[in-house]
Write the structure tokens for this entry.
Amino acid sequence: MVRSKYQSVLDLGQTLNIENGDVKEENGVLKVTGTAKTQYEKNLLWDSIKEAGGDNPSDIMADIKVADLSVYHRHTVKSGETLGKIAKHYFGDPMKYKEIFAANSDILKNPDLIHPDQELIIPNLS
């Protein structure tokens, strides 16, 4: 019963290729563990948990670790994207493009010139 309630979370975990993922159901509580690649992916999982179970669900216990804490995420540029659009997606603020540009100054020389298939570091914001 509880597993089906959180099936969308489990599906997302598979889509994200969560490492060492494990799911157990004990006494009506779903216990989920695993390691996300980045904090962003961990946040996606938590958002999915809250969407299915509310802000403070008591029928799921999740222990999600993060493999790479040095970055918020690694983003592969798609056609038509700009640093502003990417910043809005990750941070809700297109003006944070400056932080993304600074974190990628080794490969980017102009914030207006990014190319499909470039892998950009999305930095942790303090």
Remarks:
- Residues 39-53 form the longest helix (15 residues).
